[in-house]
Amino acid sequence: MIDVTQDWTYLYKIGYVDKKLDTTNLLYTPLVSPSGNVLTMVYDETHPYQRASTSVTKKLVDFFFAREIKYLQIFQNYDWAPKILDIDTNTRSVTIEFCHETLNSIITNPERSLDSECPDWKQQLWTIIKNIDDAGYYKLSLYPHCFFLKDGKLKTMDFYACIEKDNCFLERSEIDGLIGQKSVDRFSDSTEGNFINFQKFYKITMLDFLSNSWGLDNPFPDFYKRLYD
Questions:
Q1: How confident is the model at residue 117 (pLDDT cuts 50, 70, 90)?
Q2: 56: how many CB neighbours lie within 10 A of its CB?
Q3: What is the CATH number of the domain that holds 147?
Q4: What is the pTM of this model?
């Protein structure tokens, strides 16, 4: 068990459109160690970091906590997957290596440039997407705040949002509590009967959904075409 003390700080993101400070997700509380080199994700729907929401239940959080562990372990041997430092099922927490900030801090800062700080970031990002696809999965958490740089190497996090390509349907009722206002249309367009088709969801995400967060340099439409056209 990792000893999280009061010296650890919350990780936030800057809104891609409104530029306001916001939580990074609705499922877990991200805590960064004083050194900045460790991140603990505490899956606790009652934590004050989380926005007050009666729709995010313990059952929902447990569901995604199990997926976080499963897919982080599946991809652990890839160099773009952060090293697991600890998994604690009692506190529902996962601890990984980190490096102070996510790409959100770079992309939302007009005085910084991802091209300058990581000139080959697009190629590294393509490698991650291609590796995941080749392994038979979709990773749906593709915002800049789902990636970070460590020693010039791009790494990704938020593995709870992975799903098998050959088993890509989930009952919508299982995850309805996580659907935020900004994603309602994307989920609705991917819903077939009582199920969400995440193959369709992935396509919408890659081709249409990420331009607000990645801006003019958004590489995902090209990635999707390279994968499937």
A1: very high
A2: 18
A3: 1.10.510
A4: 0.94
